[in-house]
């Protein structure tokens, strides 16, 4: 039985990974380079409207950052827009709205597949390379144009080095830096603008704005200065180039108000797109820009400002203006306004060429239209049809994965059936699993999964109270704590409450930091009687954690009470032996976090050794849990930290109820599962890629970072509450242990394993059945990714590996 | 947004507005208990307890009223519940081997108790997930509906000398009705009837209907 479970676990992971490999395949792309589709000779006679292009990509530049009065500080661009030297658009960027897939869209004109969103994170990946795929960069390169590139090194990952004459890549993963990433790009500008003969295409990709968004959201106080900085860059370029140069300013995607992106909300998909050239001033402004004063005072909740286009329309537009063939996989439709720049005959040639190029992808036969509007209508229709076309699924892999998982689930079910002593526990577990399983068939239930967990929590508390009506106070306390946790953050997509505890604490930061201090000390000390030595190092760890969190907040312009700022400054001046006025807090962050990690590791090592020499019984779990919780607190954003205080009390109450009511272990493990998931969502997480938080993934990481360290820290920070509950319930389980430790451990792994298996069968099934559903890429695929990460990280790494190690040392 | 609600069974005693009467009755009941220790209080298994008026009210609420007016529904509910108590429920409640007559003096008292119970009930609804700073009036209306749905049971608790245990089932059934109905709230259908607290009111009525019909058999 025991070894069988381990084999089952491995099989289950293999099954899920096989399924994922079949579900997220590469998109089929047309190979080869594009030719003119319609009357190739006619094109040769057309002269390009521009000689040179400067592309300024400002990461996460949402449309209102450029066009809306209250948000935008791009004063120079506004002037150009009003003068008609700049034409502005709101560009719809297809989800997933992360940099790598969007760059693919902007350069090749194709719609991205979901896999790209994940590969966006994997650094040394080669499969997303665009070396062989046709793009406007490739076309420029083939036409012997010289391309220079400065900025986000995602471009260098996408395109082979021989495309570029000169490059200087900056890394997009270190998000806490707002200044240097952009200065590294801008410092090349004066020289390049002086020697304009040395390039035909200049690409600049600025990351600072996106970093500010990730750190502080769309309304961050760092935003306006960044806008002005970007504005001055545009002004510098505009003043230096002549009218044969086209400047394109665009965001690769937008952001939501929290500064995250990846999903398909209006904010994330609405990027700004501005074409700037002195030549444009000679032609009539686009219709939406006429008679308007930009920045616009009106506020559009859908972020629709000026004309709405598709971001991929940029590709055929560029191809038309520079007179080269439209890249082969492009499904863009050229922006109608730019036909004004061509003579009537050339415009018609270009339009029909674009139409034929779209037909070459959709495989339809050409129709004849009289006027250009009818052409555009038909092209838009083809475009939206093509954008929907799903990728090819690898059905054999899907089948193998699903079948293996079904078999594993059946075996797990029978083991549970025979080994669970209490039928109530089994019933509870099966009820929970099946309820969640059925919910995977509704896209809104996947989006609002936290509601289901809350629903289950209420049922658990209610049924527990009905079974033990005399424990009224305990149940009321538990319910109150749970309600506080629920009110802490908004989760899901549908409901947004203004008065979350998270926001209230941010507002009343004195209370917030008092609570944080209380939480850190309570969780570390756990109310245990300590020896003198143990007291000292616990105190040291707590202070380190508190000072680090406070310093981090000070550096990131959050409000921190004066007494705490004083504590931070004093502790640094003591540690470094310098005067308080000379302390530079932002330089102290990395060493501070490293010191914390080292001290925690040392303390845990001491505890383990002590336990080996002189077994400590239950105290061992308490100690480990205390130290790990402090580590989890360090990996949690400040306003969420007091939740751990609620967890602490809640876990005490549950333990005492468990001891008095003599629940069976499947019941406790179901409670553990429910709490893991509930708290995961109430920390502000959702089933959308957009809420994966990188904020705490760089604690103690210097600029030459290691991707695996950052990945591990990211997992820990996103799953912090779940790890807490997993460990807490293990601790409770060993409180009344009479059986051998390995039997308890393995028995307790079965319930959650059964849950993951059953839930997995239904989720994979629903992904297969709903594979042509409208929301497959925005709802179901992210859910599948989360499911894989729950399995790999929470189940395999935390519940088996980490807790198994603790039990082995016990 | 999901708020579930449950009427606190034991609250009945603590929120009674007449402490003296309560103590007197408890003293009385001790005397009774000596001779009738078997099943002192129960509700007869009979079709008479089926609360048909709740179906009628639900029909009115869902089909006839166009705007899901909770206040008007409440005005309809209260007299109908009194009538139901007098004509059906009280006639089926057996206390000490006999059916007690309807005590008219107790009716306003238990109505008052039900009204007072709306506050703890509202607190519990909030604890179970209702929003705190918004939609408070709606939450209170939901609490009022639940409490007046429980009114026959509240009356019987008074009438039967606070033998709370037997009537707990009725509160629980209303609570379960509310809880189950919450499942429609997250759906993205954007219908009027998904607005807070409409689905819960429908759930409470359904739960009460099932409860009053089936609880005697449990």
UniProtKB/TrEMBL annotation, chain A:
Keywords per UniProt: Endoplasmic reticulum, Glycoprotein, GPI-anchor biosynthesis, Membrane, Signal, Transferase, Transmembrane, Transmembrane helix
Transmembrane segments: 393-414, 426-446, 534-555, 663-685, 705-727, 753-775, 787-809
GO biological process: GPI anchor biosynthetic process
Membrane topology per record: Multi-pass membrane protein
Domain GPI ethanolamine phosphate transferase 2 C-terminal span(s) in chain numbering: 390-808
Single annotated GO MF: CP2 mannose-ethanolamine phosphotransferase activity
Classification via SUPFAM superfamilies: Alkaline phosphatase-like
Coiled-coil positions: none
Pathway it works in: Glycolipid biosynthesis; glycosylphosphatidylinositol-anchor biosynthesis
Protein task: Ethanolamine phosphate transferase involved in glycosylphosphatidylinositol-anchor biosynthesis. Transfers ethanolamine phosphate to the GPI second mannose.
UniProt keyword Signal present: yes
Gene3D superfamilies in alphabetical order: Alkaline Phosphatase, subunit A (3.40.720.10)
Protein name: GPI ethanolamine phosphate transferase 2
Family recorded in the similarity comment: Belongs to the PIGG/PIGN/PIGO family. PIGG subfamily.
Subcellular location: Endoplasmic reticulum membrane
Signal sequence, start to end: 1-20
InterPro entries: Alkaline_phosphatase_core_sf, Phosphodiest/P_Trfase, PIG-G_N, PIGG/GPI7, PIGG/GPI7_C
Any Gene Ontology CC annotation: endoplasmic reticulum membrane
From TrEMBL, chain B:
Topological relation to the membrane, as annotated: Multi-pass membrane protein
Ranges annotated as spanning the membrane: 106-128, 140-158, 170-189, 195-215
Pathway the protein contributes to: Glycolipid biosynthesis; glycosylphosphatidylinositol-anchor biosynthesis
InterPro entries attached to this UniProt entry: GPI_biosynthesis_protein_Pig-F
Primary localization: endoplasmic reticulum
One Pfam family cited in the UniProt record for this chain: PIG-F
Any GO BP annotation: GPI anchor biosynthetic process
Subcellular location: Endoplasmic reticulum membrane
Gene Ontology cellular-component terms listed: endoplasmic reticulum membrane
Family: Belongs to the PIGF family.
The protein's name in its UniProt record: Glycosylphosphatidylinositol anchor biosynthesis protein 11
